[in-house]
Fold this sequence. Notes:
Layout: H1 4-28, H2 32-46, H3 52-76, H4 80-112, H5 119-128, H6 134-147, H7 152-181, H8 187-218, H9 225-244, H10 248-261, H11 263-269, H12 280-305, H13 310-338, H14 342-350, H15 356-361, H16 364-368, H17 379-410
Amino acid sequence: MIPTEKFLLLISSTLFLCYVSGLIYTKTKIPDILWLLGFGTILGPILGVFEKEGFVSISPLMGVIAICIITFDSGIGLDFRILQKTFLKSIALTLATFFSIVIVVGVAISFLAPGSFSLIEGMLLGTMVAGISTVAVTSLMDGLRRLFPNMESTRALLMLESTLCDPIRVVAAITLIRMIMLPGVSIRDSARDIVFTFVMGSIVGLLISMLWAEVLDRLRGQPFNYMMTLAALFPTYLLAENLAGDGAGTMAAFVFGLVLANYRRVARGLSIDRSLRTDKRRLIDFNEEIIFLLKSYYFVYIGLIVTLSQEYILMGLGIVILLIAVRYGVASAVGQVMGFTLEEKVISRVVYTLGTSTLVMSQLPLIFDPEMTFITNPGLYSDLCFPIVLGTVIFAAIASPIIAKRQLKGEGPSPYN
C-alpha cells in the first residue's frame, strides 16, 4: 500500500516537473519525457523512496483509464477527411511492422538465447513489442510539432496505427500462448478473431457515439458535458471488451471520439438526415488537461517500476536496436509503395516507441501459465520488456527529432530549415 502523503506529494511534484520540463524543452530541446523517466527511476529503483509493488498493483486500472481517454482523444482530434487519406497507409504500416517484428524478434531471440526461448516463445515476445504506444506517441508528436509545424496527416497516420495495433497484438499474443499450451489452435482462428474484434469494436463505438451525440445536442450549453461524456466513454470501452474480447475497447473508444467530432460527415455518409451540434472545441480543450495529467503520471510510473539489471539491460538494448532497424526498413518500403509524403515517411520510420500495453502484455505468460508448465520462463518477458520500453522511449525522445530534422532537410525542399 502506498502511503497517502507520499502519493499526493508524488502527484504534485510530477505535475510541476512536467510543466517546467515543457518550458525547459523550448530552451534546451531536452524532451520532458526524459525528465519524468529520470525522476521516477531516481525515486524508485535508485533511492527506494517508493516500492514498485504498490504501483504495479494499480497499473491495470490506470492502464485502462489512460487507454480509454487517450484513444478517445485521438478520435476527437482527427479530421475525418485526413483519416480517409491516411487509413490505408496506417493499415499497411501497422500490418507490415507487426509481422516483420514478430518474425525477426522470434528468430533472433530463439537463436541467441535458445535456453530461454523457443521460436514460438520468441515470437510471443515479438507480439509484445510489435506496436507503438498511443500515450508515448501522443507525447512525442506534441514535442515534434514544435519543431515541424503542419503535421496533421503524420499525426493521424501514427495515432491510427497505435489504435489499430493493440487489438492485433493482444489477440495474436493470446493465440500464441494457446498454441504453446494447446497445439491444436490454428492461425486461421486468430485472423478471424482479429477481424471480429475490429468490426465489433467499431460497431459498438459507432452506435453509442451516435446516441450520445443526440444527448449532447440536447445538453448543449449545460455545464459538465465533458465529464458526462467520460461517463459514457468508460462503459463503451467495457461493453466492447466484453462483447468482442481484448482489444475491442480500444477501437470502440477511438470510434466514439471520431464520430462525436465528425458527426455531420458521418451522418451524411450513413444517409442520416440529422443536424446536430457538439461542442468539439470544448471537448478537446478539457481533454487536453486530463491528457497532461495522464502523460505526467505515465512516464514517472515507468521509471518507478523499472527493474535495473545489467543482463536485462543489455538484452533489451539489443532488441531495441533490432526494432529500430526493422521499423526503419519497413516504414521506408511501405512509404514507397503507399505513396507517403516526405514528412510521413521520415517521421514514421524514426518514431517507434513502446508503452503501457507492452508492459501489460508482458504479464500474460505468467497469467496463463503461473506454474511454468508450458512456457520456459514466463517471468522473463516482463523483465525484458521494461528496458525495451525505456530504450524505445529514450531513442524516440532524443534521436528521433534529430534524425527527422536532418532527413527532412536533406531529402528535399522543406520548410524546417
